[in-house]
Design a protein that fits this description.
heterodimer, A: about 300 residues, alpha/beta, 6-stranded mixed sheet, 4-stranded antiparallel sheet, 12 helices, B: about 375 residues, mainly alpha, ABC transporter involved in vitamin B12 uptake, BtuC, two-stranded antiparallel ribbon, 14 helices, about 70% helix, about 0% strand, globular
Chain lengths: ~300, ~375
């Protein structure tokens, strides 16, 4: 494991809200290709940690680096484009948009159509061969491009808008399939069932093509069967090359899926290691179960 | 009381079902059919001033003038819809942009303005659009960081500032106003247009006494602008606006540069407002600060909300009602604030989505039915 590159480095991060210290000198790294669990009792600072990584909260001190680039002070939408995506603990979809549109918004993060470009769609993109390959690789217009090549259509005849619109659509459908709700693509996000909404959030986050996917209690409110299928989904996502940072309450779920675990309590890191190590760690046991009276 | 509300809701829902059913049937028609029907409707709108249709003619006002007013209001509503309906920003000072557009044309084009230059209309209007766009950006830059109610208050203030400025500044001739606002063209009707009722060959195309030319110009601009906004709506840009309206923070985290897109919405809305102001006051040929009161601004917002914010046809309908009804039923014209106020309250209770259900309405209805079933 140690030969893997560090994807995300959280370096001595402290966050204070007024008098409350939510995070106190926390540091850990997320390695390329792993699933890292971030656990801790209620109020331990897990979500604050997430918010700091995704730029929602600015750390009082400390540094956060993603692929070596400093994140503190970056705008939130730029952090997304650097390759960090997240879901929310309390679901925050775009309720009056369809499931498909929700995912398309995520896909748009990688696209470039401007207001002018969307207005005058007749403007053709002059795509050079190497750019074509780049677009191809980035936004999954692969099939479209192949079709264009096969049928001899001129790709140069398509406006950027049309090209990207199709790519976004294609990608959205694929992601909805991946999370298993493609049959509800045309429905409003708010009319989806609870579990489907959680899955839709994951699809929307994946559409931004993240290197690091942060899941904030994705299994909250799930029954054991749903949790099991969620585990499978998370593994599937990891296998496509996305690193996963997972906040979770359910110990069984965390132990089952993560490669390493970081434990927070009262804003401090109290343990770090493989699931087996963490499970045996007395500090973790004390944090979760309380210290026996005779030992104290 | 609850029973009354319930039965009203039921009636409303069955009507909505009928309308959405109609929409589905419309969508299933062959492409050629749809194009032909649309084309026929467009022709009908152009021909409207020359048709003798009983009951719809306005008794006390020139019917073509009313049609022109409707077209201008639709243009206003289309612009305001971008800001309110798509991006979800409550703008109560929209009339400020309308005034900026109108005054720009008047000041640059009129021989009687304090500014010596006198450009023709076709030059003035693009400048007016540019100036309103810039004013939208200038207003938006500091204020779009505010949310909801705060933004509404600031924009409301902006509308009043523009009005008070127009009333007191030298460049606008204060309350005396500016006469001789340029008309789009000095041309006259050609021989071959003589057959159309109300058109006499050799008479000027754009004149106060015969508004057909203005109406056709306004109608054409309405179509162009609606098409443009529709294109934006169905693109990455429109999706970003909707996302901002739905949940700004989530949109930002999903990679939408929310500030940039809000600014664009403001600028585009402002440009359309400026265009409609320029258009309307070219027909009036006279402009002063009287026409830019807060109430008009609020009535426009009411029209957008009543018509169905976010749905172009809906807001167009709302705007037409706002322009047409007071002229058709002159005896009630003084009560229009009251009537639209009551309509707004009734709408927020029964139909927060507006008169014309948006395409998403159907799903929602099924939702409500499900909830009802659980409740019983």
């Amino acid at each position: 494991m140690s030969e893997r590159d560090n994807l995300l480095e959280v370096d001595n991060v402290t966050i204070r809200f007024g008098g409350v210290t939510a995070l106190d000198g926390v540091d850990f790294v997320v390695k390329e290709g792993e699933i890292l669990g971030l656990i801790g009792p209620n109020g331990a600072g897990k979500t604050t940690c997430f918010n700091a990584v995704t730029g929602v909260v600015k750390p009082t001190s400390g540094a956060i680096r993603f692929r070596g680039k400093a994140l503190v002070g970056q705008q939130r939408h730029k952090i997304t484009r650097l390759g960090i995506a997240r879901t929310f603990q309390n679901i925050r979809l775009f309720p009056e948009m369809t499931a498909l549109e929700n995912v398309q918004v995520g896909a748009d993060a990688r696209h470039k159509t401007s207001v002018v470009g969307a207005l005058f769609r007749t403007w053709r993109v002059r795509v050079k061969e190497h750019e074509l390959v780049a677009i191809d690789a980035k936004s999954g217009v692969g099939r479209l491009v192949q079709q264009v090549r096969r049928t001899g259509q001129r790709i140069f005849g398509l406006s950027r808008h049309t090209l990207e619109e199709r790519a976004a659509r294609e990608k959205a459908v694929e992601l909805l399939k991946l999370v298993g709700i493609e049959h509800r693509a045309g429905e409003l996000a708010r009319s989806l069932a609870y579990g489907e909404q959680r899955r839709l959030e994951i699809a929307r986050a994946l559409a931004t093509e993240p290197g690091l996917l942060c899941l904030d209690e994705p299994a909250a409110g799930f029954n054991p069967a749903e949790k099991e299928s969620l585990l499978e989904l998370i593994r599937k996502i990891r296998d496509t090359g996305v690193t996963v940072l997972l906040i979770e309450h359910d110990m069984r779920l965390v132990m089952g899926v993560t490669d390493r675990i970081v434990v927070l309590e009262f804003g401090k890191k109290i343990a770090e290691g493989t699931p087996a190590e963490v499970r045996e760690n007395p500090a973790v046991i004390a944090a979760y179960l309380g210290v026996p009276t005779d030992a104290a | 009381m609850m029973a009354v509300i319930d039965s009203a809701r039921k009636a409303d829902e069955s009507r909505v079902r009928a309308v959405t059913g109609l929409r589905d049937r419309w969508a299933n028609l062959p492409y050629g059919w749809r194009i032909s029907v649309l084309f026929a409707f467009v022709i009908f709108l152009y021909a409207l001033p020359g048709l003798e249709i009983p009951l719809i003619k306005t008794p006390d006002t020139d019917f073509t003038s009313v049609l022109f007013l409707c077209a201008v209001y639709v243009l206003v509503a289309v612009g305001l819809n971008v800001v309110i309906g798509l991006a979800g920003l409550l703008d109560l000072g929209y009339i400020g942009f309308y005034a900026v557009g109108a005054y720009t044309v008047a000041i640059l084009g009129s021989p009687n303005s304090p500014v010596v230059i006198q450009y023709p209309w076709v030059v003035c209007v693009p400048i007016a659009i540019a100036v309103t766009m810039v004013s939208g950006v200038i207003l938006g830059w500091p204020t779009l960081r505010l949310r909801g109610d705060y933004l509404a208050i600031v924009t409301l203030g902006f509308g009043e500032i523009i009005r008070v400025f127009a009333l007191n500044s030298d460049i606008t001739n204060g309350n005396r106003g500016i006469t001789g606002v340029p008309v789009p063209s000095e041309g006259t009707w050609p021989e071959w247009m003589d057959w159309f009722p109300g058109i006499t060959a050799g008479r000027p195309i754009f004149s106060v006494s015969n508004v057909i030319g203005f109406y056709w110009l306004a109608l054409t601009l309405v179509f162009i602008c609606m098409l443009g906004v529709r294109r934006l709506e169905r693109s990455r840009v429109g999706r970003s606006w909707l996302a901002i309206r739905e949940d700004e923070d989530a949109a930002e985290v999903m990679g939408v540069p929310t500030f940039k897109y809000k600014l664009w919405a403001f600028a585009i809305g402002a440009a359309l407002g400026g265009l409609s102001g320029a258009l309307f006051f070219s027909k009036q040929t006279f402009i002063n600060a009287q026409g830019f009161d807060l109430f008009t601004s609020i009535l426009w917002v009411a029209a957008v909300v009543i018509g169905g914010a976010g749905n172009q046809l809906g807001v167009a309908l709302g705007a037409i009602l706002l322009a047409y009804l007071p002229e058709r039923f002159r005896e009630f014209a003084d009560y229009r604030l009251l009537i639209f106020g009551v309509a707004l309250i009734v709408m927020t209770i029964f139909r927060p989505q507006g008169l014309l259900p948006s395409r998403r309405r159907k799903v929602e209805l099924e939702d409500r039915a499900k909830e009802g079933a659980v409740g019983e």
